[in-house]
Amino acid sequence: MSDARDWLTEGLPHIWLPYTQMATASPPLLVTATQGTRIRLGDGRELIDGISSWWTACHGYNHPHIRAAVERQLASLPHVMFAGLVHEPALRLATRLAALLPGDLERVFFTESGSVAVEVALKMAIQYWRNKGQAEKQRIVYFRHAYHGDTFATMALCDPEEGMHTLFAGTLPDQIMAELPTDENLRRAFDLLLATHGERVAAVIVEPLVQGAGGMKMHDAQTLAFIAEACRRHQVLLIADEIMTGFGRSGRMFACEEAAVVPDIICLSKALTGGTLPLAATVARRHVFAAFLADDPAAALMHGPTYMANPLACAAANASLDLFEPSHNSPCLAQVAAIEAQLRAELEACRDLAGVADVRVKGAIGAVELSCQAGGAIDLHALRSRFSELGVWLRPFGNVVYLMPPFVISTGELGILTAAVRTALTERARTL
Ligand SMILES: *Cc1c(COP(=O)(O)O)cnc(C)c1O
């Protein structure tokens, strides 16, 4: 296969990988195919994917129902601009999202990535108040350990100390960080913060129940309900960033449901297309949308990504939503419950290992938080390469090793993933 080697060796010096020190990183693994829970490598090995390709591939890879829908769509209408023109896949998807989401979250703005979905939510929130004559309400409250994206506006909403964006701190808008109100004192403090700054605050943004890329931190439904209630009292919009938790990952279709919270705006992406094509949605409640209706062009939402509502991506999302319906006898939420039980049982053994600070599980999310008292920095490179030696694809970041497998994973395969975590962390414990 001299041909294969040519494009590989010629191509590698031309790509720039994400979150990677290119001077020292070990070479990336070549993938030749995916199927179900498996990633096939160029050297013939297969890895079990424990993180669903950045939390997207909830039904596993190459699901025949999604593939067929995308192929059908490709033959008739791969793309058309979405200004002044609409199409069936987007209208069907918007209708279905409105029906699935709680309350009157019913007006859908499509984009192509999570970060942009959050940017649109911020524009909606700020302009909502401007359109209502309260232009001074412009600032956003976010929480410690938050992650809302990599673009400039979203970087300003990521944890300033632990986030990956400290480098840009001086160039970012100054937003307001709060502690998650997880106990009585913190609730009083959060209330005071909104009382003090409320007149300048457009919205509070939260990752409901599980904060993802900021460290897989988990909070309970009462905390989320308190945040929503405080927002209502202080006349501040609530933006739920369910880009990670949406579509069953937390155990419910949307994490907000567990707290019976209806946010004013919700952001969705990652598992929206079942990991097949890029797509995101920012969905607003009726009263938010109503604030943009006026006999005034300047009151309209001025945003429009070139590829918004791409028909292929919308077709993939519709097919992915089919797989959540009982008629497709693919009981996703029951699968998540079974994964949760197995993760709880099998990751618990990590808790007593040296160098393990905490074990947390919520829905189909399992996290083992490492401590670095003894050994200095956590050697992520060593852990990552050990995992691929053990036949699994896991990519710990910061101080967490986490699992977010496809919902279709078998008990046996999930057992291999949790065993790999125990093995690698037991070996690490011996070196501390
Ligand atoms: C991944 C993620 C984003 C950013 O999505 P991209 O598609 O990577 O831009 C935003 N918020 C949360 C909670 C995420 O998990």
Tell me the distance between the termini: 44 Å
CATH secondary-structure class of the largest domain: Alpha Beta
Give the helix/strand class.
Answer: alpha/beta
Total separate domains = 2
Task: Summarize the amount of helix as a percent range.
Answer: 25-40%
Plain-language structure description:
With 432 residues, this protein is α/β, with parallel strands linked by helices. It folds into 2 domains: 4-62 and 331-430, Alpha-Beta Complex (Aspartate Aminotransferase, domain 1), CATH 3.90.1150; 65-322, Type I PLP-dependent aspartate aminotransferase-like (Major domain) (Aspartate Aminotransferase, domain 2, 3-Layer(aba) Sandwich), CATH 3.40.640. It has 13 helices and 16 strands. Strands 4-12-11-10-7-5-6 form a 7-stranded mixed β-sheet, with helices on both faces. Strands 1-2-3-15 form a 4-stranded mixed β-sheet. A 3-stranded antiparallel β-sheet has the order 13-14-16, covered by helices on one side. The structure holds pyridoxal-5'-phosphate (PLP). Pyridoxal-5'-phosphate binds at residues 113-115, 118, 147-149, 207, 212-213, 241, 243-244, 269-270.
